[in-house]
Write a structure and sequence with these properties.
The protein is about 45% helix and about 20% strand. The chain has nine helices and eight strands. It has helices at about 10-25, 35-40, 45-55, 75-85, 90-105, 145-150, 155-165, 170-185, 225-245; strands at about 60-65, 70, 110-115, 115-125, 140, 185-190, 200-205, 210-220. It is an alpha+beta fold. The chain is globular, with a radius of gyration of 20 Å. The chain has two domains: about 10-80, Winged helix-like DNA-binding domain superfamily/Winged helix DNA-binding domain (Arc Repressor Mutant, subunit A, Orthogonal Bundle); about 85-245, Beta-Lactamase (2-Layer Sandwich), CATH 3.30.450.40. Strand 7 and strand 8 (about 210-220) form a beta hairpin. The strands form two sheets. Strands 5-4-3-8-7-6 form a six-stranded antiparallel beta sheet, sandwiched between helices. A two-stranded antiparallel ribbon has the order 1-2.
């Protein structure tokens, strides 16, 4: 019986299956069991085991010697560091974010859309956020203001994929508000839980006026409309300042 969602035979199929496993390792718990990965990927256990062994040898994955479960390997971190160091958006925005953080007294984030997730390229924390730091991470795009600005501007196929990966409530909200988000140059979103602040985001565009990223600031949930407008104005001026450095963005 053929495997579910099997990729074409040969090198391309192997690469697709390997990247699928890496995505599953990234989205799940830190260490995952072989059979769970096989079930979630739609591939047979022998196929998953063979691919994982190759990934472990290449340091793209690790296997815990005690539990025999698998996780992402250190080679991912090395490649990610090189990717970030060369990213045009990060290089364009970085000179401005510390001054922006100090001016707004707020945590500032620079993010891009990758697949169905908002990926934080850089985060500069406010000085008064307390002893605990929330590191840059990847989150469902529709669960954040910058993610909604970016996701709503994707083509219909990409949009449907984003919806398919979201919860039913988020997907329904997104369907109802897509046009409004897609027409907005900035967006405010209240906190989704007690551990998350409210946030306001603006678009970052390159020299050709194409949207390439979003710049956001954490704000208090009760921030007045007047103060929100000031934050948006400052974020927007910063985004415009970056535009000339994004000729190849």
């Amino acid at each position: 019986m053929p495997e579910r969602n099997a990729s074409p035979r040969g090198g391309l199929g192997t690469i697709r299956n390997a990247t699928k496993l890496l995505s599953l390792l990234a989205e799940g718990p830190a260490l995952q069991h072989l059979t769970d990965l096989a079930e979630r990927s739609g591939m047979s256990v022998p196929t998953v085991h063979r691919l994982l062994r190759s990934l472990v040898i290449a340091d793209f994955a690790i296997q815990d010697p005690t539990t025999l479960r698998y996780g992402l390997g250190p080679e991912i971190s090395r490649l990610s560091t090189h990717y970030l160091s060369k990213h045009p958006v990060l290089n364009a925005v970085s000179p401005f974010v510390v001054a922006l953080r100090d001016q707004l007294q707020a945590t500032i984030s620079t993010s891009i859309l990758v697949g169905h997730e908002l990926v934080c390229l850089d985060q500069v924390d406010a000085g008064d956020q307390g002893p605990f730091r929330s590191p840059p991470t990847s989150t469902p795009a529709l669960a954040s203001a910058p993610g909604r600005l970016l996701a709503s501007r994707t083509d219909d196929e990409h949009w449907q994929f984003i919806l398919s990966q979201a919860s039913a409530d988020l997907a329904a909200t997104a369907e109802q508000n897509r046009q409004e988000w897609a027409n907005a140059e900035d967006l405010f979103m209240g906190p989704t839980d007690v551990l998350r602040p409210a946030e306001v985001a603006v678009l970052i565009k390159d020299a050709d006026d194409d949207v390439v990223a979003a710049l956001s600031a954490a704000v208090a949930p009760n921030t007045s409309s007047v103060d929100l407008s000031k934050v948006v104005d400052i974020l927007t001026r910063t985004a415009v300042s970056c535009k000339g450095n994004l000729r190849n963005g």
